[in-house]
Amino acid sequence: MRAAVLHETGQDKLEVLDDVEAVGFGPGKVRIRIRATGLCHSDLSAMSGVLPQPAPFVPGHEGAGEITDVGDGVTGLTPGQRVLVCWLPACGACPACKRGQTQLCLAGFLNAGTPNFKRPGGDVFGFAGTGTFAEEVVVDAGCAVPIPDDVPFDIAALIGCGVTTGLGAAINTADVQAGSSVAVIGCGGVGISAIQGARLKGAAQIVAVDPVASRREAALRFGATEAVAPDELADAKQRLTEDEGFDYVFEVVGKSATARTAYETTRRGGTLVVVGAGAMEDVLQLNMFELFFDEKRILPSMYGGGDVLRSYERAMALWRAGRIDLESLITHRVPLAEINEALDQMRTGAALRTCIEM
Description:
Distance between the termini: 11 Å
Number of strands: 19
Helix content: 25-40%
Radius of gyration: 20 Å
Number of helices: 12
Structural class: alpha/beta
Shape: globular
Largest sheet: 7 strands, mixed
Strand content: 25-35%
């Protein structure tokens, strides 16, 4: 089958090969024919080494498709069933799951260290234990989440990561209050989803911050009340909050520099939500006095900060009711053979989300 492979960490191009085989099928596993997959910035971060991932590997973790086979012991899933791929399935038995914080379950991360593809030259890993830049993938049954027939594969794929992460950051983690002021730094697919979540929660002011003009324009269509370049943020803070700062600031870039800006843009007693996934060596510096004196809440948001299965259902219900726009998030579509074009679209900021059609 065909799959896009990164041979070594640090390379900026993928090679589309037709000699890749999905492996590991057996008890507790399912085989999925991928129909659509989104390109998330985390895929680029894994390719560059910002996020740890053994190589060679098949990127992609935001996918949807049809089950073609189920292993022994799998219940509730059947061949032909339409599913989205959950890259962080909950085991249901660890302390985090028992506390109801299923987004903190580590079981899914362990899958990233087990090869689920192979080539004549050896084993190939799947990013985050999945690897949806492939025509077929074998994953734990918990990674396959059934979707209703009226949810298209491309919409389901987005819900599998970016939409759930952004919406959840605003709804679950921050619990944005009606009438509040919000700034979102970084307006790709996840940032736009955070904007939609803040709008749903009734925020009065939502300022989108991004260096790319087309993304700023898109943010306004998705619910931002104002969109500014990074060097205009200080002026927006002065004009809109009398320089006090915003009630909620979402950092959706994953860099300490933007996180520091986000902290300084948050009002005293306000909330900074860290959504972007950054590098382990990139350290955010805060002094002990400001932490005490400003009383700002710093809330990391992992995969939307809530139970992902409930978050999926909520996103589908909101989309079905017309309360959130997911179709317009997909600004580009390419076949798997043109995956490197999709990477360029992400790097330049030309795309909010590119759908790779399989």
